[in-house]
């Protein structure tokens, strides 16, 4: 049902007083409107200083909110693992954060245009382009979500690590397919 922007924006503020932080997806579900509409509403509210946009969501401005400044995983809402952070920059300008590459592989932008994703190199701790990273799935080292997904900027490093800790080495597209198969029940396999 179409709703007036003012009505929705009041509703968003009401939700935020209840739960401090909301993701774009939660707002899309609750308001029954498109992510673009949610973004427009949040931009209005942010311009008015009523809310603070955070990665993939929104919170009350810092002075009225004690918690909620740290982004949480857009898939499972866990805190972001500092050794495994994964972030996707969508063409809309939205940033989606994931606790680890496991959840990161399941992040999806609204548009199907390619997004830029960055993942944390497990050995060195810096962010690398996920599309060029090596993904080691199901190794003996579990940092965050199961099955464990570790990412390496260098395929050679990943192979050396795999020799010691096992797992399957895949590229971005293969790892994404692998994870989607684990999580989605395809009605037409
Ligand atoms: Zn997660
Ligand atoms: Zn995780």
Account of the protein in words:
- α1 crosses α3 and α2 crosses α3.
- It is elongated and about 60 Å long.
- By secondary structure, it is of the alpha+beta class.
- 33% of the residues lie in helices and 19% in strands.
- The protein folds into two domains: 60 residues, Orthogonal Bundle (Arc Repressor Mutant, subunit A); 98 residues, no CATH class.
- β6 and β7 form a beta hairpin.
- It binds zinc ion (ZN) (2 copies).
- The site of one zinc ion has 8 residues, from loops.
- One zinc ion binds next to α4.
Total domain units: 2
Q: What proportion of the residues form beta strands (DSSP E)? A: 15-25%
How many individual helices? Answer: 6
Average residue-wise pLDDT: 88
Poorly predicted sequence stretches spanning 5 or more consecutive residues: 64-68
- N-C termini distance: 34 Å
User: Secondary-structure element order, as H and E?
Assistant: HEHHEEEEHEEEEHEH
Number of strands: 10
Which class do the helix and strand fractions yield?
alpha+beta
**Overall radius of gyration:** 18 Å
């Amino acid at each position: 049902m179409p709703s007036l922007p003012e009505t929705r924006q009041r509703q968003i503020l009401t939700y935020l007083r209840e739960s401090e932080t909301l993701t774009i997806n939660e707002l899309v579900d609750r308001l029954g409107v498109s992510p673009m509409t949610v973004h427009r509403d949040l931009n209005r509210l942010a311009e008015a200083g009523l809310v603070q946009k955070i990665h993939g969501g929104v919170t009350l401005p810092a002075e009225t909110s004690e918690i909620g400044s740290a982004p949480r995983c857009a898939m499972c809402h866990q805190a972001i693992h500092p050794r495994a952070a994964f972030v996707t920059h969508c063409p809309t300008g939205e940033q989606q954060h994931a606790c680890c590459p496991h959840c990161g592989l399941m992040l999806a932008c609204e548009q199907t245009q390619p997004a830029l994703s960055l993942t944390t190199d497990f050995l060195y701790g810096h962010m690398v382009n996920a599309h060029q990273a090596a993904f080691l799935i199901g190794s003996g080292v579990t940092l965050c979500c199961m099955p464990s997904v570790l990412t390496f900027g260098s395929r050679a490093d990943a192979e050396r690590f795999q020799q010691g800790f096992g797992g399957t080495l895949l590229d971005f597209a293969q790892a994404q397919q692998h994870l989607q198969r684990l999580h989605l029940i395809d009605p037409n396999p």
